[in-house]
Amino acid sequence: MSPPPSEAPVLAPALRLDAAALRQRLADPDSVPRDRPSPQEDLDRAARAGGRIVQAAVLVPLVVHPEPTVLLTLRSARLSSHAGQVSFPGGRMEAGETPEEAALREAEEEVGLDPGLPELVGRLPSVLTGTGYLVTPVVALLRPPFGLRHDPAEVEEPFEYPLARLLDPAAPERRRQEFRGRIREFWVWPHERHYIWGATASMLVTLAAVLRGRG
Predict the structure, then answer these.
(1) Structural domains of the chain, ranges and CATH numbers in brackets
(2) By the 8 A CB rule, do 60 and 140 touch?
(3) Disulfide-capable partner of 102 in 38, 57, 115, 191 (CB 3.0 to 4.6 Å)?
């Protein structure tokens, strides 16, 4: 019996994680799908609302196992913002930093990842969070072996999410919820122990489309 259409035909090409192909795909902004409005549209809305934007960056590590994964973290419940949420390693950018420099620095601080190990391949479109962070996701290939020593003040635990599940178009669920008098729509990804939603879930939707080669 042949597999359902959402399985092998879609997954096989993407699971190779070819660095050159990813660089080419991410080098052309017009080819990168956007789950959310463009950064400029978000900034325009924030400016009209008088919001203050904080520049931030996260590292999106694609772990090159025989069955690849993406590395995520569960943030500490003691943090002042986004406490207890699933995210990529990352944080606010310091003065003069590029997104790549900030993402690597934060990954080292949060999970003890050697900044010389990730092979950077490009960026996903920036995402403006509801808390005023304009986050640039920096995509990298991460080849084992590598050691992690997370900082418990910032991260409860690092964990890996299977790329096969990420690339299944039926996996993410679109939900609606009323918040401050308005209906909000957001993505949720299935996981046995963690609730993956918000900006991280949106970045994962965009990442999956890039890996499948779809704009």
Answers:
(1) 52-212 (3.90.79.10)
(2) yes
(3) 57
